[in-house]
């Protein structure tokens, strides 16, 4: 497994496993504490694992947490997703930077997203399972959502949106969220 920095988002990393494939399929390590530690992250900091299943065209996000934020490892364990990260840390050298990825069950690549970054994705396949490893227990009172179609972000989602939560559909603009976060 190798770790690669994401230049558009300071402190973000891609963890790419080396699958062993044969006639049975493949086997690969999806988490390696030593590799995580080698880029300065504490592998024991992650306290919660979650999984979402989405159908083609479903859009989830853009989400982040207020307060101390939330760092997470995200991996598409089955299918394919278009994944988006937006850096909303005012002191970051990549503030307002955006990065786009295609994560898939074929590669099992994991994306580390630092606390203070917004995250969202769209399912590209009929079924897409997305795994999350999060560094704090979830507190719904800290949930923040940004409009997925905010013109300031100009994210080119690859498919028409087939479904999203009410919260995501009614999310405020980036400018509104940033104004509220400054308080």
UniProtKB/TrEMBL annotation:
One term of GO molecular function: dTDP-4-dehydrorhamnose 3,5-epimerase activity
Biological process according to GO: dTDP-rhamnose biosynthetic process; polysaccharide biosynthetic process
EC numbers: 5.1.3.13
Domain of life: Bacteria
Coiled-coil annotated residue ranges, if any: none
Catalytic activity of the protein: dTDP-4-dehydro-6-deoxy-alpha-D-glucose = dTDP-4-dehydro-beta-L-rhamnose
Keyword Isomerase recorded: yes
CDD domains referenced in this protein's UniProt entry, alphabetically: cupin_RmlC (cd00438)
Gene Ontology cellular-component terms listed: cytosol
Pfam families to which the protein is assigned, alphabetical: dTDP_sugar_isom
Pathway: Carbohydrate biosynthesis; dTDP-L-rhamnose biosynthesis
InterPro entries: RmlC-like (IPR000888), RmlC-like_jellyroll (IPR014710), RmlC_Cupin_sf (IPR011051)
Protein keywords: Isomerase
Annotated active site: 63 (proton acceptor), 132 (proton donor)
EC class of the enzyme, as a word: isomerase
Quaternary data: Homodimer.
Function: Catalyzes the epimerization of the C3' and C5'positions of dTDP-6-deoxy-D-xylo-4-hexulose, forming dTDP-6-deoxy-L-lyxo-4-hexulose.
Family in the record: Belongs to the dTDP-4-dehydrorhamnose 3,5-epimerase family.
Name the record gives this protein: dTDP-4-dehydrorhamnose 3,5-epimerase
Organism of provenance: Streptomyces iranensis
Lineage, top ranks: Bacteria, Bacillati, Actinomycetota, Actinomycetes, Kitasatosporales
């Amino acid at each position: 497994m190798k770790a690669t920095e994401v230049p558009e988002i300071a402190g973000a990393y891609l963890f790419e496993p080396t699958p062993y494939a044969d006639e049975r399929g493949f086997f690969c390590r999806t988490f390696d504490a030593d590799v995580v530690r080698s880029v300065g992250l504490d592998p024991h900091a992650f306290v919660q694992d979650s999984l979402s299943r989405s159908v083609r065209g479903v859009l989830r996000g853009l989400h982040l947490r207020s307060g101390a934020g939330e760092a997470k490892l995200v991996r598409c364990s089955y299918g394919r997703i278009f994944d988006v990260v937006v850096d909303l840390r005012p002191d970051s050298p990549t503030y307002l930077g955006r990065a786009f990825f295609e994560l898939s069950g074929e590669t099992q690549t994991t994306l580390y997203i630092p606390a203070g970054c917004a995250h969202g994705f769209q399912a590209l396949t009929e079924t897409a399972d997305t795994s999350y490893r999060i560094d704090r227990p979830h507190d719904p009172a800290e949930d923040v959502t940004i409009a997925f179609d905010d013109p300031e972000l100009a994210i080119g989602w690859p498919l028409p949106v087939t479904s999203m939560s009410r919260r995501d559909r009614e999310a405020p603009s980036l400018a509104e969220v940033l104004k509220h976060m400054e308080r």
